Amino acid sequence: MDGCNREALARRVISTCLAMETRGINQGNAGNVSVRFGDGFLITPSGMDYARLRADDIVQVDLDGQSHDRLQPSSEWRMHRDIYTHYPAAGAVLHAHSTFATALSCLRLDIPAFHYMVAVAGGDRIRCADYALFGSQELSDNMLAALEDRRACLLGTHGMICYHDDLDRVLRLGVEIEALAKQYHFACQGGQPVLLDTQQMRAVLDRFADYGKQSGGADED
Question: What's the pLDDT tens digit per position in 90-119?
Fold first, then answer.
């Protein structure tokens, strides 16, 4: 991501925010998006409608939490900062209050291996973090515990968060997490979903090591 200048990256952050709305995983000014930049990251400002954002509204934050821009960063900047600090490969972070992921988080439910695509988050379940006040370090600490060896988690009575290599991939992952939450919700309406076992999920995770690679890797519909 460092190969792009700040304005270009800021515009891509805004495009991702708008796509979150068109893809149905966010509404209004809820949620937030960031991208790694230099020695820190660029993140959406606090409390602003995505449709009104301009490139110079996107806030640069250092990994020590300092910002010198005219607007305040999202109140959830700590979660973004801690992901970039703990996961050097993380290039972008997306946090959303998507309907079904949030509903499951209010029930404090993990998303278990009811479908093999749960593996897109990096494990055999998508964990739900314990609740903590929004914007707090406690929330970020709870998130990190739930994210261990994963790319995504639910946030207790809050929503979901995920990270990936870049903005395009993190948007796709966020959309997939919400789809899985929706599918799990409806599967539970018909009874207790049959879960894939550890061996079956290990085979999926091994296959996903080449997921999306066109040179002989796994091709998924």
Answer: 999 999 999 999 999 999 999 999 999 999
